[in-house]
Amino acid sequence: MNWHRLSTIEVFELLGSGQRGLSSLSAEEKFLEIGPNELEEGEKKSVARILFAQFKDVMILILLGAAIVSGIIGDFTDTLVILFIVILNAVVGFLQEYRAEKAMRALKQMAVTQARVFRDGEIVLLPATALVPGDVVLLEAGNAIPADMRVIESINLKVEEAALTGESHSVDKITYALEVDDLPIGDRSNMAFRGTFVTYGRGSAIVIATGMQTELGRIAQMLKEDEPLTPLQLRLASFGKKLSVLVLFLCIVFFIASWLRGEDIVKMVLTSISLAVAAIPEALPAVITISLALAAKRMIRFNCLIRKLPAVETLGSVTYICTDKTGTLTKNKMYVEEVFVNGELNERKNLSSINKQAEVALLLKAFTLNNDAVVDAEKIIKGDGTEVALMEASREHNIQADLFPRLAEIPFDSGRKLMTTFHRVGDKIISFTKGAPDILLLRCVNIDLPAMQKQVENMAAKGHRVLGFAYRYWDSLPENPTSEIHESGLQFLGLTGIIDPPREEVFEAVAQCKTAGIVPVMITGDHLLTAMSIAKRIGILNNESDIAIAGQDLAALSGDELLAKIERIKVYARVSPEQKLLIVKTLQQRGHCVAMTGDGVNDAPSLKRANIGIAMGITGTDVSKEAAHMILMDDNFSTIVKAVKEGRKIYDNILKFIKYMMTTNSSELWTLLIGPIIGLPIALLPIHILWINLVSDGLPAISLSFEKAESNIMNRPPRPQQQSVFGNGRGIHMLWVGMLMAGIALSAQSWAINHGLHWQTIVFNVLCLSQMGHVLAIRSETQSMFVAGAFSNKPLVGSVVIVLLLQMIITFTPVLQPVFHTEALTLIEFLIVGTISSFVFFAVEIEKILFRRKRSR
């Protein structure tokens, strides 16, 4: 129903109501039919359900299976170690998800507790939940709007609708019907919506929708949509499934081959478990979680608060940043940018050279005197944003308002769009009138009206809010000034172009986005001309093929048309919450990883649906913050770009430790599979593999998250979402380095057996020390460790030293030898182990040299 198109009489007839509201009987009947005026929460996730969901991951299920089998055959050490890892991972995941389940609760808290309502012709105080369509509600400054309503009386009524529309200015409310059908919420000036606030004036309105039928209710419905998985979650889910198939296949092949050779059944089961344990990077889930948590902690330093840990990694894959304009790209502060006076257009900075001219001096006085902004004790100007901007401009020229006190006024109202004040100057009275140029110019004499209207159009085309100023002298102060008499026959004074200007740092941030292959897009509740002006200035709109579109035109596009055009649209203006959600979904349909910023309730559905939702910390509502993955503490677009750089760095480092861990697992598999085939005994026990996978893998892997960003990190396109963790040569590296490590280990095993040495302990130490060489070599994909600097990542060096010390402790400490099935090595044995383990480090360094030569060619 287009309620804004109906007259108040038609609204009364449709709702069976009148100026004095509903009867108690009628209201009760409607309440029984419609229900309370509150938002539905939908199905709540219980604590148990959230906890059990943490065990659905394929890799976790494989680990649980291995723990159960180990327990059945009596190897309780392995069982306890695996269960510890699984429980740790589940607890971390549970805490993250439990904190995220609050968006609907925050929406419910926006409910208004009481409202003044006409019932049976009398004004009564009722709970907002008891309101029904047809109720007439009284409104005044400070009231929250309790339902969606059609305004029926407005005495200078202004409503703050930023939470729903994103517009920071209060909207003047009118009572007459509007002519256009599908108006955006921000343009329905005869409507008031639940979740908004009365900032000025008073009036009354009739309830037309309650509960889930309100605009806020529609947003609540959209919030129920599932969030998409992050790129890393998708890759790891795919990785886990492939790994489970591989583990099952290897165990079956090994078991059948051993059975055909007549091996002992218990030994075959133990070895199959060893294979399964060797193939699974047990520490990977915990290492990723810890690394993301460490990155989230670092990001607080540059005003980024991470609410959901996977968001850190998602930032690295972002291809589109859909950002709000006001406060994020701009300063959220109105500014007088240019002034038209004496027939010339002047930039603000040039006014100081002409402020002695009579007309200019008079215009600057008008800025201050026809102004309701006030200066507090700390010399800070407070009031409406436009009036603050005018007073700041005049303050630069030392205009003293107290020398010309206001003697009378004709207040502003939304009907005539003018405001007039009267002041004494010498022995005369001067009136200053300001307001909408299209109305003001018609009240002026001795002007070239077409030329002035053209000037207004030119200034408005730059995205400026244009205000006109005029004056008139009077012999005496009017007793009861009226618009008809005292706002006519005016002398035109000038025009001002006022705008919320871009932040200085945004220009570089937008350019950096484009260099990094990320497309910045503006989505705003502001008018199209203003949005286009800012977008052109900061470089979002800079190609002829780029499109700017208003919400009404967007609504006219079919799904296929939008899909075809979406990658060319760089500016969206006056869009609804449903359209914001549609933009995100369409970009995702195109294969993009989308970051969306927002601060209002209207942004919550698109923030939740985006691959990464970014709420504003200063201006953001509680609802937007609860729906978001990340909060910008300074509401600054350039902070997003810094966060993207950090996200790319952490994702690069996650890929490094996946490469590191899977290479180790590959070496263990080759060692266990090839050894028996060439006639060697099984080299490793499950406890050895768990130690390597958890301790020798885990500590250095976490330290890799401290690795500095590659030099070209913001000069390359984002990694494709479809790219596997084995892509870009990582899979081949895991195989050949794993085979090299296995070859060294098996050679050492054969040599040790032939010389009667402690062969199992030697193999165990060779694999562990080879890992340390490997992790030092893969710190950079292309740069040699000797160029990067051995100590540029001190936590990694420290973790390598700790692992080496721990390895020596479990090898040489008698009380630990039975637990880890180790024997003390001689000094010669240990030196030989260290020497042959270093081969891996030099082999990977040679690989990087070959890669650099190939790239340079």
What is this entry, summarized?
The protein is α/β, with parallel strands linked by helices and 857 residues long.
Helix percent reads 40-55%
Silhouette: elongated
Nearest-angstrom radius of gyration?
A: 35 Å
Q: What value does the average pLDDT take?
A: 85
* Distance, first to last CA: 67 Å
The main pleated sheet reads as: 8 strands, mixed
Helical stretch count? 33
Structural class: alpha/beta
How big a fraction of the residues is strand? 15-25%
Please give the order of strands in the largest beta sheet: 8-25-24-23-9-20-22-21
Q: Can you tell me about this structure?
A:
- The two termini are 67 Å apart.
- Helix 10 (265-279) packs antiparallel against helix 25 (637-677).
- The chain is an alpha/beta fold.
- The chain has 33 helices and 25 strands.
Features:
857 residues; alpha/beta; eight-stranded mixed β-sheet; elongated
Helices, strands, pairings?
Elements lengths: L7 H8 L8 H11 L12 H7 L4 H15 L3 H25 L2 H7 L4 E6 L2 E6 L8 E5 L7 E13 L1 H4 L5 E2 L18 E2 L4 E13 L5 H8 L8 H30 L4 H15 L4 H16 L4 E3 L3 H6 L4 E4 L11 E7 L2 E4 L10 H12 L4 E2 L5 E2 L2 H11 L10 E5 L7 E8 L2 E8 L1 H4 L3 E2 L3 H13 L3 E10 L8 H4 L3 E10 L6 H10 L3 E6 L3 H11 L8 E4 H6 L2 H7 L3 E5 L3 H13 L4 E5 L5 H6 L2 E5 L5 H6 L2 E3 L4 H41 L8 H19 L25 H25 L4 H19 L7 H4 L5 H19 L4 H4 L6 H11 L1 H18 L1
Parallel strand pairs: 9-20, 9-23, 17-19, 20-22, 21-22, 23-24, 24-25
Antiparallel strand pairs: 1-2, 1-3, 3-7, 4-5, 4-6, 4-7, 8-25, 10-11, 10-19, 12-13, 14-15, 15-16, 16-18, 18-19
Helix pairs in contact: 3-5, 4-5, 4-10, 9-10, 10-25, 10-26, 11-25, 11-26, 13-14, 25-26, 25-27, 25-28, 26-28, 26-30, 27-28, 28-30, 28-32, 28-33
